[in-house]
Amino acid sequence: MSYRSHHYRVKSQIIGLILSMFCLLGTFDVAASSASSTSAQFPVVVHAVNGDVTIASKPTRIISLSPTATEDLFAIGAGSSVIAVDNDSDYPKSAPKTSLSGYTPNIEAVEHYHPDLVVVVGDEGGLVAALQKVDIPVIVQPAPANLTGVYGEISALGVATGLRHQAQALIATMRAKISAVVNSAPTFAKHQSYYAELDPTFYSVTSKTLLGSIFSLFGLKNIADRASGAASGYPQLSSEYIVSANPNLVFLADTICCGQSAKSVKLRAGWSTMTAVKRGDVIGLSDDIASRWGPRVVILAQQIEKALVKLSSRS
């Protein structure tokens, strides 16, 4: 899904991981066996992309090797059960950050914590099979393609932690806030074009990714959708292509990792002629928020709406 500067050094790994998982997201759901319909009972079974995951008892020693899962777990009230998170999980600040890596996980280091649940973005290094051998349940939660996938992953963690009601309450709040933001956006914004930048080498997103789908909620048109390599969801555009497309808006998701800004963009060859650059409609986004898919997607929607209001005021 920016995990600060490290995120872009491993961009190829992330993109490959996301693409390998997309085909599974459409069937993502959760289920639980329960002795009572009014309280969370264990064992529960979570249907995840890595198959049915049985959790025998309420987890009290959770490891998250996914910055998004870390945010989700704390948001639903499971933070007190999280004993360790990966080195990119920097939100919330109270999360027990360690040197564990979600990209190159050290299986022995994970086992050392004696977890009773591990949540990861993907099955890197055969982690899932290795932990299954020692009866440690693992839930794989890759980057979803849309908000339905976002809500599905939060719901799954609610089931897995015995906090189903809290997870559903969070989802309801997120739905309501995003709907309100989209409905309050200026209607003129529909059909305005945009370019979303992941890094200064012009990797972007199409409308078939989560980030792209959120822009689509506002009716914005993505210049990357027709670019070479668009089928991947994460095409690398050329500077010439972007300038020629002349988007009305430019969104930068590389402000922290790579120091990009409206000022640096204007200095790029030929970019000063672009409509968005000339009018000052180059918007910096938080790298972390733009690349994760937890509760803070609401903030992302709010940032987009704010940019559209600014654009509308000058039109």
Q: What would you call the structural class?
A: alpha/beta
- Assign an overall shape: elongated
- What is the C-alpha radius of gyration, as a whole number of Å? 20 Å
The biggest beta sheet is recorded as:
4 strands, parallel
Q: How far apart, in Å, are the first and last alpha carbons?
A: 33 Å
Proportion of residues in β-strands: 5-15%
Provide a count of the helices. 13
Order of helices and strands: HHEEEHEHEHEHHEHEHEHHEHH
| Sheet with the most strands: spatial strand order | 4-3-5-6
| Quantity of strands, as a count | 10
Q: Runs with pLDDT <50, length 5+?
A: 1-40
SSE map:
Blueprint: H1 5-9, H2 11-25, E1 44-48, E2 51-55, E3 62-65, H3 67-75, E4 82-85, H4 107-112, E5 117-120, H5 127-133, E6 138-140, H6 147-161, H7 164-184, E7 193-197, H8 210-217, E8 221-222, H9 239-245, E9 249-252, H10 262-266, H11 275-279, E10 282-284, H12 287-291, H13 297-313
Parallel strand pairs: 3-4, 3-5, 5-6, 7-8, 7-9, 9-10
Antiparallel strand pairs: 1-2
